[in-house]
Amino acid sequence: MLNHKPKTAVFRITKSEINQFAVFEENYKNIDGQFNVKSSITFNFDVFSSTLSCACLANCYKDDLLVVKAEVILCYELSKETITDMTQNNEIVIPKEILAYFGSNTYSTLRGVVMAKLEPTQVRLILPLENLSKLITQNLSVEIQANKSE
């Protein structure tokens, strides 16, 4: 466990992609009322490239029928200094506060993608805001594996 929190996370976005996007307009019969939105967020850290990937997925239902399915992935390459600051013993610990920052950034991108992609359709949906600092409650710990070729 880290004894301190990193002051900042220096990074660059190396990749962004719309991994999934589908609209089922035939399921959008009842224009009145709320959508039932089920969303998820997943993180993966690649030790060798120092890259944290964040995937945000949203499934939007109307009357229990799937209307919109969308997933966006952003990849954040962390600087060597940031990785050093997060490394202790044989693991890299990415604090939950930094995960919430990257998750919020990725989820905001998903919200924009959904709005833009739905523009030419009859479906009117704005994904709700999410406070990821309340949802992400644990740090991400990744064990550093020794290179077997050494």
Quick recap of the structure?
The chain is 23% helix and 40% strand. It is α+β, with helices and mostly antiparallel strands.
Structure overview:
This protein is of the alpha+beta class and 150 residues long. It contains 3 helices and 7 strands. It has a 4-stranded antiparallel sheet with strand order 1-4-3-2. The two termini are 27 Å apart. The mean pLDDT is 90.
Ranges with pLDDT <50 over ≥5 residues? none
Instruction: Give the assembly state of these chains.
Output: single chain
- Helix fraction? 10-25%
| Number of separate helices | 3
Report the C-alpha radius of gyration, rounded: 18 Å
Mean pLDDT across residues: 90
Report the order of strands and helices.
EEEEHEEHHE
Largest sheet: 4 strands, antiparallel
> What gap, in angstroms, lies between the N and C termini?
27 Å
Write the layout of secondary structure elements.
Blueprint: E1 11-23, E2 36-46, E3 51-62, E4 65-78, H1 80-86, E5 87-88, E6 91-94, H2 96-118, H3 132-135, E7 140-143
Antiparallel strand pairs: 1-4, 2-3, 3-4, 5-6, 6-7
Any key phrases for this structure?
23% helix, single chain, 40% strand, 150 residues, four-stranded antiparallel β-sheet, three-stranded antiparallel β-sheet
